[in-house]
Amino acid sequence: MLAQGIDPSEARRAEKSNGITFREVAEQWYANWKTNKSKRYGEYVGRRLTGDVYPAIGSRPIAQITTPMVVAIAKRIESRGAYEIARRAMETVGQVMRYGVAHGHCERDVTKDVRPSDVLRATTKGNHARVEDDELPDVIAALYRHPGIITRMACKLTMYSALRTANSIGLEWAWVKLDEARIDFPANVMKTRTPYICLLSRQATCVLEAMRQISNGERFVFPGQRRGDALSNGAMLKALRDAGFGGKHTMHAFRAVFSTWAHEAGFDHEHIERCLHHQKRGVSAHYDFAVYLPQRRELMAAWCNHLDVLAAKASMPVCMAAD
Asked: Residue 61 in 3-state DSSP?
């Protein structure tokens, strides 16, 4: 082997790695990757692997994974209306493949040959699909009257608070202060790794008071099907699909709707950004600690009233009762 210019130790390592499965490499990558990620996000990526990726390619040697195999996974996810999850699944497979390349388990990242936009149907307005303004009342009304009470309440709080979906479904009672009409999120569950005070409108408070009758004693405000778990990340997406808006609108899009409406209504940009928990960048971020609680409370009250007005304009108006 030396005479042929081959390093025997490298050859033995390559031969040993050739049979290692995608799942074995993925689990090594996942253990390394999740160390600086929030628990909620880590669990989400873990479920994506176990639910969608492993059943398809988990038992195959990683060196034998092909681009069409990865595309097939994404198309299968897309077929159930989960367009953003399909894109992220391709991204996760790519991260595992690159880890495999770095550790000598495979030669290349096969996901580099194709982009999600090459194989997945385009959604409206980028990653977070959003309906046009004339359809928005029907989306809101459909979520207001969703038959599943826990999913319905989670949708309402997400809209009323302009929270990221992960923060609303992962909400814990320990953070809720109903007597002060606020939620104090700890830094480790927020995208920016900084604590956040979410101010509750009258409508949002009604949602939480209703949920207190349902999930009192539970860890999570919106419990899942299995005791101790939070509501599934796909529950609200399913509610949108059931209403006929799958792929046309996402819950995250309500943050963009909120921002657009608030700016057009003349509210201060800084107050809007704080309601979205967007952090300042640069030197000023280290000196401006104002949180504008009174101004933000006024803004959120106006926003929730606006949502109720839109829902009343839907083709099938709904009652505005919290439950």
From this structure: strand
